[in-house]
Design a protein that fits this description.
By secondary structure, the chain is of the alpha/beta class. It has four helices and five strands. Helix 1 (27-39) links the parallel strand 2 (13-22) and strand 3. The termini are far apart. Residues 122-127 have low confidence and may be disordered.
Length: 127
């Protein structure tokens, strides 16, 4: 299965809807979309991962790198990881929880919830 990424803007939020599999071959496409959004000046980013069916360590690496990038430019990253779905929730949700890194991310059940609250105002970088 391949990976597809759609870009959309919702208010001040850049939204990347991802579907398919995030693996060694496909994950760089997600990374590139995140970098493109930052290059366009976006500092509020939502990654909608509700349609991601598989995510390996390279996909998790892209998520962690995206978080680091957004923090480095005083931005915010939010993930959409529905709690309901195959068995105990989305595949990505289960993978992040199993690796102990889910707590690093602000996770929301859907796009409305993720974009409802205002993003923080850009301020100086903190150490």
């Amino acid at each position: 299965m391949s990976l597809k990424v759609w870009d959309e803007v919702r208010g001040e939020w850049a939204v990347l809807r991802v579907s398919g599999e995030m693996d060694l071959v496909t994950s760089p496409a997600v990374r590139q979309h995140v970098h493109d959004a930052v290059a366009e000046g976006r500092r509020s980013l939502v990654l909608d991962l509700s349609e991601v069916l598989f995510c390996d360590s390279s996909g998790v690496g892209v998520l962690i790198a995206s978080r680091r990038l957004m923090r480095s430019c005083a931005g915010e990253l939010r993930l959409i990881l529905p709690a309901r779905g195959a068995e105990d929730g989305s595949h990505v949700n289960r993978v992040l929880a199993a690796l102990g890194v889910r707590r690093l991310f602000d996770c929301y059940p859907d796009l409305d919830a993720a974009t409802q609250q205002a993003a923080p105002a850009a301020g100086p970088l903190s150490a």
